Amino acid sequence: MTNVILCGGSGTRLWPISRTLMPKQFVKLFENKSLFQLTVERNSNVCDKQLIVSNAEQYFLALDQLEEIGQHNNSYILEPIGRNTAPAIALACMALAPEELVLVSPSDHLIKNETEYKKALQRAQKLAEEDHLVTFGITPHFAETGFGYIEADGENVKAFHEKPDLDTATDYLEAGNYYWNSGMFMFKAGVFLEELEKHSPDIFKASLKAYKNADKKDLVRIKLEDMLAIPENSIDYAVMEKSGNVKVVASDIGWSDLGSFDSLYEELPKDKHGNTLNPNLVSIDSKNNLIYGNERKIATIDIEDTIVVDTGDALLISKKGSSQKVKKVVEEIRKDSELHHIHLTGHRPWGTYTILEEAEGYKIKRIVVKPGKRLSLQKHHHRNEHWIVISGTATVTIGEETKILRPNESTYIKMGEVHRLANDGIIPVVLIEVQVGEYTGEDDIIRIEDDFRRD
């Protein structure tokens, strides 16, 4: 069995923790592990291998986090742009043998009851081996308006329903044969593709063309023009709601999609006053609060049922029960800021950079390059750069000259000069970069040569 892990999505409902280049599935929220890592560990006990569908930026995050938990030799499909779940799953199934069993799982869900989870997988496997498309329906314990529902007659699916209002959700709960739509599935790769071709032939044909045209040297890289040609649609709309071959497995597995700070609050450990545990919190007569922040002290006085999220470059304060409105905040921020896109610390395949200070005409960064890695050979049109090595030994190429820089040594790169920074040593290189120029944006990078095949 192959676990197809879907890594798309930016998780904007958990902003400012989650951002486009560090979405919630890669944020380490639970005992220093991410939801992505927990997903891989959980499913590696029942699946022979993982096939990860991701975009290029998240691919490198996935590689790093898999290395941390000792998971290697996974397969990848890289999408240059997302087209929703139906094309992503189709591309994954095209990379597999038709008889291969496929467990499709989002990378950003929490499952706490692994015993019941394994039981649900065993039942789903039996149904999938009989050539059914299987979806997992989460047993509801309260009336939830934020999820779609599956109406069932035993294991037969009667209908899929959109997110209901509260009265309808209450009726669903009382009826006892309605389940939350989890977004998890199991089927044979070939069976899914047959149903996709039957019910959404436009998606099937465009996906097949994209897969055939893909670069498959070390992993599957879909070309942008081919990806754009695939109609955008979810697996529910494209296949599951149209097929007469769908079964549902009732699953009471301690599941949460962590789709809001209110749901995150329910899952995090708390102190005796109901505040989430945080070593940086000084709490005076405050209770039942979600307090998130690890960069500075957070003091609260006489507050209750509040969400406080501090990430260094952004601060969110909300009443509990209102955190679904965070999406509206992100819509406003997109108009004049990059705060929806990236944290102060950006993750790259070669390491990280952290913005220490930024103002008109200059930017100061702390750059960490992992052993054996190097930045692209590049140049800039609008800025000069000063590099000062703090620790490690840096190999610096400027024009035709290559030199070694050790701690407390520095160099200068003029605007327009071709240059590269590499770490040929066995410990990380840490340096301070000072950019000076009329424009210091991240898009002022002209890559001439790149080990990671980025555009």
**Percent range for β-strand residues:** 25-35%
Terminus-to-terminus distance: 34 Å
Count of helix runs? 11
What's the CATH class of the largest domain, please?
Answer: Alpha Beta
Rg: 24 Å
How would you explain this protein's 3D organization?
With 455 residues, the protein is an alpha+beta fold. It folds into 3 domains: 2-256, Spore Coat Polysaccharide Biosynthesis Protein SpsA, Chain A; 261-331, no CATH class; 345-449, Sandwich (Jelly Rolls). 24% of the residues lie in helices and 33% in strands. It has 11 helices and 30 strands. The strands form 8 sheets. Strands 1, 4, 5, 6, 8, 9, 10, 11, 12 and 13 form a 10-stranded mixed sheet that branches. β4, α2 and β5 (75-78) form a beta-alpha-beta unit. α3 crosses α6.
Topology (SSEs and partners):
Elements: E1 2-6, E2 28-30, E3 33-34, H1 35-44, E4 49-54, H2 56-68, E5 75-78, H3 85-94, E6 101-106, E7 110-111, H4 114-129, E8 133-138, E9 149-153, E10 156-161, H5 166-175, E11 178-188, H6 189-199, H7 201-213, E12 220-221, H8 224-228, H9 235-240, E13 246-251, E14 255-256, H10 261-267, E15 281-284, E16 290-292, E17 298-301, E18 306-310, E19 315-319, H11 326-333, E20 345-348, E21 351-359, E22 362-369, E23 377-379, E24 383-391, E25 394-398, E26 401-405, E27 410-413, E28 419-422, E29 429-437, E30 446-449
Parallel strand pairs: 1-4, 1-6, 4-5, 5-12, 8-13, 15-17, 16-18
Antiparallel strand pairs: 2-3, 6-11, 7-14, 8-11, 9-10, 9-11, 18-19, 20-21, 21-22, 22-29, 23-30, 24-27, 24-29, 25-26, 25-28
Helix pairs in contact: 3-6, 3-7, 6-7
